[in-house]
Write a structure and sequence with these properties.
Elements: H1 8-20, H2 24-37, H3 43-59, H4 63-76, H5 82-93, H6 97-110, H7 115-127, H8 131-144, H9 149-161, H10 165-177, H11 182-194
Length: about 200
């Protein structure tokens, strides 16, 4: 940055490093500055800045603001697989179930085992009280990322909703073996007790 303050790529790199350190507000500013500097002859760089800006805004809980950069990135490069994933997350966080489902399905059309898109599909279907259709998506998402405690927790709820008690117990026991928040662990223990699951 010291050597090339006027180059968009330098701001992209600095913003990305800031995201990794959790300095999301500062990262948003860097990506914004990069976008003001990027030229029309660098569409890939513009897409990267837009996508990273959208991702940082999502992590800040500013999903509505993230939509503009993400949709612009998709207009420039409709083939970029990362942008629909981020759109799906933003729309899910905004509880736009139809939009989240459409974005997730567009990802799965190209990458059927994309873990994030599978998770969003499962969560959307759970939110619609459609446990039967949610389970296959959540199972595939859990296979893609078997260490994600929240997936096992949600799977347990879906299994319980379908009366599949032994599978629900196994899913919630898995939560306790994995890294999870105190709240999720406490809820898993409570669910195990409610179902009188064997130890």
């Amino acid at each position: 940055m010291a050597k090339s303050p006027g180059k968009a790529r330098a701001h992209l790199g600095l913003g990305t490093a800031m995201v990794r350190r959790g300095a999301l507000v500062a990262a948003v500013a860097e990506f914004g500055t990069g976008l003001s500097l990027v030229g029309p002859d660098a569409p890939a760089l513009e897409v990267a800045l837009l996508h990273n800006l959208g991702g940082a805004l999502i992590r800040l809980g500013r999903g509505q603001e993230a939509m503009g950069p993400l949709r612009r990135a998709l207009e420039i490069d409709p083939t970029n697989p990362r942008t629909p994933q981020s759109l799906a997350v933003a729309l899910w966080n905004m509880r736009d179930l139809d939009g989240a489902e459409a974005a997730a399905r567009s990802v799965l059309a190209r990458a059927p085992e994309n873990g994030l898109a599978l998770r969003i599909m499962g969560l959307v279907l759970l939110a619609r009280d459609d446990d039967a259709r949610a389970i296959p998506f959540l199972e595939r998402a859990a296979r893609a990322d078997p260490t994600d405690a929240s997936l096992h927790f949600n799977l347990g709820g879906a299994y319980a909703g379908m009366g599949r008690t032994s599978e629900a117990c196994a899913a919630w026991r898995a939560v306790l073996r994995l890294r999870a928040t105190d709240e999720v662990r406490a809820q898993a223990r409570q669910n195990l007790a409610l179902l009188q699951c064997p130890p």
